[in-house]
Amino acid sequence: MSSKLIQPPSSMAASRVSIPRRLENAKSFVSFINFNGKTLSFSDNSFRLRHMFIGKVTEQSSASSPNEQQQEEEITVSQIKEELYEALKGINRGVFGVKSDKKSEIESLVKLLECRNPTPEPTGELDKIGGCWKLIYSTITVLGSKRTKLGLRDFVSLGDLLQLIDIAQGKTVHVLKFDVRGLNLLDGEFRIVASFKISSKSSVDITYESSTIKPDQLMNIFRKNMDLLLEIFNPEGRFEISFLDEDLQVGRDGKGNVFVLQRTE
Questions:
Q1: Between 77-87 and 100-115, two packed helices, what is the crossing angle to 10 degrees?
Q2: Is the dihedral of CA 206, 209, 213, 219 positive or negative?
Q3: Which string of DSSP letters, residue by residue, matches 8-22?
Q4: What pTM does this model have?
Q5: Contact 175, 189 (CB under 8 A)
Q6: What angle do CA 144, 147, 153 make, to 5 degrees?
Q7: Dist CA 226 CA 219 (whole Å)
């Protein structure tokens, strides 16, 4: 039997990676590396995934037995996505911070998805990337004085964060929608226009071009904090697409921030 070993970043080689509780009963074939460097493998039907020190995850190759392949496939992409959507409920995309246990749960689910990426070379399949995507989770946060300066504690509410990707033009438009209480500006928005070019089989380099805030009343509110808005939301830099299918995209920027986006109209 042959297998493919996925080695996590060195900084996490001896760290605790938790398997979300709702997936603990799933059957799988995995190998664990203990601190003595010994590998312990399990493929028994009764094995339950638990919170352990995980050094390597063994993915079965085409040479695996039918029984082992069935065990591996029982944790499907659809199941992981369902668990991820459930975990993301009530956290407002993580914009204003997430409790550590919830963040660990989401991170574990994201990594499980990345291990099952159906599009390992996404920049070679640009038709899957084009269109409109809605941010449903990010590790970028607006906390403390930044949140206060932007009025996001009291009279300004943050609406949808959208990413419009035009493959033909090589452009992306990032749209942040705002609702300002008392001014009836339900359609206020901050737009960032950028260009992109392919830098590898799984990444693109994004270059900032311009930004605008509409309507004018909203511009008057945010004018003195435009630099702060760009500091937080400017997409410029390298973006690695680590998971992509017909309705979900996961990526990481050059600073290691995670973004989960869902296709929308």
A1: 160
A2: positive
A3: PPGGGTTSEEPPPGG
A4: 0.71
A5: yes
A6: 105
A7: 9
**Residue 66: which residues within 8 A CB-CB, separation 6 or more?**
none
> In whole angstroms, what is the distance from residue 70 CA to residue 73 CA?
5
DSSP reduced 3-state for 176: strand
Tell me the one-letter amino acid at 39.
T
- pLDDT tens string 46-59: 333 333 223 333 34
Which residue ranges form the domains of the chain, and what is each CATH number?
Answer: 1-75 (no CATH), 122-264 (2.40.128.280)
The angle formed by the CA atoms of residues 227, 136 and 216, to the nearest 5 degrees, is 40
Torsion of CA 175, 180, 183, 186, to 10 degrees: 40
In this prediction, residue 215 carries a pLDDT of 83
